[in-house]
Amino acid sequence: MITNTELHKKGNQFPSKIISCKKEVDTLYFNTDNGVILQLTVLRDSVLRFRYATETNFETDFSYAIDKDASRGYNFLTADENDEVYIVTTSKLICKIDKSDLRIVIYDALDNTIVLEEELGFHWEENYEKGGNIVKMSKVAQNGESYYGLGDKPVHSNLRGKRFENWATDSYAFGRNTDPIYKTIPFYIGLHHKKSYGIFFDNSFRSFFDFCDERRHITSFWAQGGEMNYYFIYGPKMNDVVASYSDLTGTPELPPLWALGYHQCKWSYFPESKVKEVAHKFRELKIPCDAIYLDIDYMEGFRCFTWNKEYFPNPKKMVKELSDDGFKTVVIIDPGIKIDKDYQVYQEGIENDYFCKRADGPNMKGKVWPGECNFPDYTNPNVRKWWSGLFKELISEIGVKGVWNDMNEPAVMEVPGKTFPDDVRHDYDGNPCSHRKAHNIYGMQMAKATYEGLKKYAYPKRPFVITRSAYSGTQRYTSTWTGDNVATWEHLWIANIQAQRMSLSGYSFAGSDIGGFAEQPTGELYTRWIQLGVFHPFCRTHSSGDHGEQEPWTFDEEVLNIVRKFIEIRYQFLPYLYTAFWRYINEGIPILKSLVLFDQDDQQTHNRTDEFIFGEKVLICPIIEPNAKGRRMYIPKGNWYNYWDDTKLVGGKETWVDADIDSMPIFIKEGAIIPKYPIQQYVGEKEIDELTLDVYYKKGREKSELFDDANDGYDYKKGRFSLRSFNLVGKKKELIIQQFKSGKYITSYKTFKMRLHGLPFNVTKIQVDNEEIAFEDVKVNGDNTIIISKEFTELHILEDS
Ligand code: GLC
User: Fold this and answer.
1) What is the pTM of this model?
2) Residues of the chain under the 50 pLDDT cut
3) Whether 720 contacts 711, CB under 8 Å
4) Concatenated DSSP letters of 667-682
5) What is the pLDDT of residue 192?
6) Which has the closest alpha carbon to 302: 272, 266, 346?
7) Does the Cβ of 483 fall within 6 Å of ligand 1?
8) Which stretch of DSSP H or E encloses residue 240?
9) Is residue 96 within 8 Å of 111, Cβ to Cβ?
10) What is the pLDDT of residues 316-364, one digit of tens each?
11) Is the shortest distance between the CB of 267 and ligand 1 below 6 Å?
């Protein structure tokens, strides 16, 4: 293991004094006496990029992570200097570069306080064995600083006191603190003195992050090769840090709405009769479900893009029948291509030289499910194009709606390291390199190629892809799950942490294998897991199958009824979740908000792990222990309604909340307007002719939003969406709701059914757009329910005195 920051480590080299500074539009180049170059680019007033070269020149500037639409083109760059430092100032921050050693200190421009301060700063060690440098960076941890992010790490939300490695790894039955696992997202967030910033270390080599583990007040990161190349992102609000990181690395397009429904998966459902039996059972028992998955056994000898004709004699017919019943079929596709001269995909790969090669020439060979395989080099654009094309039959002919990419770390069985050896060669989009550099982005490029294939053949519908491995930026193409977890209570805690952490790391469309992949959950554990899972953006039960059944009806009647109830809740919340998704893709705002992101000024939130905000206004806290009748939880500041009985609670403290097995703590922020669908067995089962709005009275103001479009297709990009912003203003004896509309989409619903919660007065008068409305006309049903045209612009509900 390379250790990073010991001051006296033999071999560490440091920049010496700056001898020149050159400016080019948005970039400054600082040259030191000993040949180091710092390239400092201002991307926006809160985002700086730092890049270091130690030998006369930089590498080609190429990144898989950075989105092509990321903000750039800052043109207000000015640099001042005094005897000691160069000074770059933007409206948000001041960056000082020490003339004697290139060390950086960044200040908040408004109050001049330190945000980020280098300790040793950039330093490096020559890598005599492999060539290039081991590039290193160390910063001072500020008093009370806490750290978040880093993708899928299954550890406490605050990363302080720990060291991590980024090397995508197949991690069957990983546990709490296992590191590394499937994903590499080298982005973390620091928070101190109520200010938050992020660091994105865009280096795909094996990298390490140390948050005050090696030395108590030092945070450092380093990589085994490549460049020291990182982005500093200032908030000071954590929400803005994540939003700026999302601007840099991108967000996805909207998924088809069905992808936000419930998914059922197992390794494996086969033959066809079994798949249909499972699907029928969902309908028979009236448990909503939108997608059913086929794991590796649907293939002929695990050959990708083939079907086992004995199990699935007529896939097209089966997929069509499932589709007639509202089920979308999702199939698994792994990267390993079976070495079999009679197999067409293999033949094409060989003929066109599409497979990864060892350093001395032979194809990379390794064992996965089909036995000996070769592996496409997805870092080659021609290979990606070929791969995309392979989906034609599955998608356009057979009618499959989604593809599940697995084993793409890449995983190889029965070898040390469980992946390709370091010497394997990759094209890296025209920047040829070894596996040391390409490993962490291999899964991402596979998922990208899959996504492009689906996008092409599913058109004019939207594609749905799910991946196991990912690097920063993968969220642009695909959803993800957290890999092979275990049916234990500890894993329920992990699932909760991971989904929140992924969301904070710019990757909102994530979820866990509900119930656990390995081993078998008790009915109680499964129930508690479903309760959490329905509030994750990706919601799928999956299990390895060799430990028994894991469908909602395989436990007992009580479990079945509770599971149904919670999946129904998810279907009711769909327009709310879809709106949160839309905000995520547009503004980079995470769908799940850890409490620290929701209220970073409240110190109480900094080390919370269990509670989170779903979307903008719903507070969730799963029950993660057996035999619980409730739990203690922290209610963030503000006033909240208990979802189940509308009782009001004042936040800012820990509270016991009752939650027997058929319940869980759910709270709604006062002032919220939550859009809801009727219960459907699958998305699109019913034409929505009336939309429910649950309106939670608040004394004061609150804003809510509702986004609609055709739930699929790309018309929303041409303005055919409907966005409604609601302003709620609550007074002692009056509730006012104003509506602002934009977009060209005409929703199927014509009316809103408003359910008024917590009104502190008796309604005697209702005015819509300045006209008084007779009670009968708006159907006040004696239960504070109002039915009103969706076109209203201002609604007054009052008690006339
Ligand atoms: C891997 C996946 C798992 C899948 C299995 C068989 O273990 O993580 O989800 O079911 O492979 O394809």
Assistant:
1) 0.97
2) 1-2
3) no
4) EEETT-EEEEPPP-SS
5) 98
6) 346
7) yes
8) helix 238-249
9) no
10) 999 999 999 999 999 999 999 999 999 999 999 999 999 999 999 999 9
11) yes
